[in-house]
Every structure is written in structure tokens, then in C-alpha cells.
Write a structure and sequence with these properties.
Length: about 290
């Protein structure tokens, strides 16, 4: 059965500190209402790259304390500072996270040898399994099939969080590595990714939209492609509206409409304007009101 993971959001107070109660509410909502299979903690959606190391530790602690072993947990530990990534990999492993993930190193232009060393260093001395977080649109780092093969020489690297619209590469990767865990990262492209036999998905919009997405995955598994396509269409209407209204603050505003206290985004992300609030209310009414 294909797995559905929400990319966990972090609730912030207006001053950028972490709102623990709100973050816990979102975790509970994902587990109790969305019935997700897992949570991706410390990813882009969690605004992780805006956090101090102490705040990252705080989020990792809150998530596992709230979720316990109710769902699978993947901790994204990649950062600009390799020492920090290594520290966090050990930290989350000691907390009990069953899987970790690390974004490809970004900002500077690294050689593939440097990228490989980065992953091997993170995993050195850490008894855990890792998913490569590949998101070329944000990092500028695209990996080839040969490079994935070289990274997979480390047996602790078990798969890819594949946030990439290159479906040719996805097909090549899926078929070359049938035993690796491949989780699709673009919510609006889930259906074509399912057709290429990914093992599941991780995404931001699943925080709000998981039940519709589960229905789509079930329809796909049952061979009802028309129904899966119709559900993807509705999801994509919602995703388009969320993106047009600035996706990260909008996800939180819609969560607030649902009664879940998702808090603020962290600067320099935008604080919501009255217009954004009004649009988020409409998105809630159009797509998520029960
Ligand atoms: C850049 C970004 O936020 N990508 C999202 C998608 O879920 C994305 O928001 C969605 O497909 C809308 O474009 C996920 O791939 C990110 C993710 O899972 C994470 O790291 O939090």
C-alpha cells in the first residue's frame, strides 16, 4: 500500500519563536483526522531552513513526543553547516526517529564528490536510514541516475524524496532501483507519479487535503483512473488557489479556519494581509469545509 506523509508545518508566534501548542495541534490533526501514515519533520514546509539549531531541536523533540510511534517519522537534518547536520542526525536518532532525510547541500556549487561526502559524513556513526531530499527547483542541485546509484552504494541510503517534475528521470530511477523507497514530493503531480509506481508521497498540502488524496490513491490502486483524475483535478484547483495566495501563510490561514492553531510563518516569510485572510477563508469554504 502506498504511503501518505504530511510535511509537517511549524507554528510560530508573531516574534518567530516556536508555538509549541499549535505545532502539537497540527501533529494531532494529521494523525487523528488526516490519518496520515507519517510525518516529514524539518522540511521546507516546516520552514526549517529559517530556524536556529536550537529551534530545530525543539521541533524534533515536540514532534516525536506528540506522535510517539503512532505514525512513521522522517527527520530532515540537512543544513548549510555539515557539522550541524551530523549533530542533528545523531540527535534525532537518539530521540528515536526511525528514518532521517537530508536535502542536497545547497547555496554554493558543490561537486558531486562533495555531495557524496556530505551524505556519507552525515551517516557516519549514525545507526539510521536516510532518504535523499532532492528538490532541484529550490536547491539548484539535480542528480543524475548514475549519481543516485553512487549515493546508494552507502547501504544506509534507502531512497529519495523526489520533489522534481522530471518524470523521465523518475521512471528511470524507479526501474533501476525497484527496492528503494521513492516518495513523490510535488502534490500537484501525484497522479503521474503514482502511474510511475512511487511508494507514496510527502507534501505540504496533505496537511489540509489528506483525505481527498487518500481517496485518490485508493482509486488509483483499484484501477479507477477516472476517479483518481477527478480527485487530482480538485486537489490541483485547491493547490493553485493556495499558491496564488502565497502557499505557506495560506496553509496556516486555512488550518486556522478549520480550528487548528497553526500560528504565523517566520520572517522573512510574509505576515498575512486582510486580503490573504479573505482568500484563505474562501479556499477553506471551496475545498476543505466538511
Ligand atoms: C517547495 C515545497 O514546499 N514543496 C512541497 C510540496 O508539497 C509543495 O508545497 C506542493 O507540491 C505545492 O507546490 C514539498 O515537496 C516539500 C516538503 O515535503 C517539505 O520538505 O516540507
Amino acid at each position: 500500500m502506498k504511503k501518505l506523509y504530511s510535511a509537517l508545518m511549524t507554528a510560530f508566534n508573531e516574534d518567530g519563536s516556536i508555538n509549541e501548542a499549535g505545532t502539537r495541534e497540527m501533529i494531532r490533526y494529521n494523525i487523528d483526522v488526516n490519518k496520515v501514515d507519517g510525518l516529514y519533520v524539518g522540511g521546507s514546509t516546516g520552514e526549517n531552513f529559517l530556524l536556529s539549531p536550537e529551534q530545530k531541536k525543539q521541533v524534533f523533540k515536540i514532534a516525536i513526543d506528540e506522535a510517539k510511534s503512532d505514525v512513521d517519522l522522517i527527520a530532515q537534518v540537512g543544513s548549510l553547516d555539515l557539522n550541524e547536520s551530523k549533530f542533528l542526525a545523531k540527535f534525532v536518532t537518539d530521540l528515536g526517529y526511525p528514518k532521517i532525510s537530508a536535502v542536497t547541500p545547497f547555496y554554493y556549487k558543490y561537486t558531486f564528490e562533495e555531495i557524496k561526502d556530505y551524505y556519507n559524513e552525515i551517516l557516519k556513526g549514525v545507526d539510521n536510514k536516510l532518504l535523499i531530499y532532492s528538490i532541484p527547483a529550490l536547491t539548484g542541485v539535480g542528480l543524475s541516475i548514475e549519481q543516485f546509484a553512487e549515493l546508494f552504494e552507502n547501504p544506509k541510503i534507502i531512497g529519495i524524496k523526489y520533489t522534481n517534475a522530471d518524470f523521465y528521470l523518475l521512471e528511470r530511477v524507479r526501474n533501476k532501483f525497484p527496492d528503494k523507497l521513492i516518495l513523490s514530493g510535488f502534490d500537484e503531480m501525484l497522479l503521474p507519479a503514482l502511474a510511475l509506481n512511487v511508494d507514496g508521497c510527502i507534501g505540504s498540502t496533505y496537511n489540509l487535503n489528506a483525505p481527498r488524496v487518500r481517496a485518490e490513491m485508493d482509486a488509483f490502486d483499484a484501477g479507477d483512473i477516472d476517479k483518481a483524475r477527478e480527485l487530482q483535478k480538485v486537489s490541483n484547483d485547491a493547490i493553485t488557489a493556495l499558491i496564488q495566495n502565497d502557499i505557506y501563510p495560506s496553509l496556516k490561514l486555512v488550518f486556522e479556519e478549520m480550528g487548528v492553531h497553526a500560528g504565523f510563518t517566520k520572517a522573512p516569510m510574509a505576515k498575512p494581509t486582510d486580503e490573504m485572510r479573505a482568500d484563505a477563508k474562501k479556499i477553506y469554504q471551496d475545498y476543505f469545509k466538511k
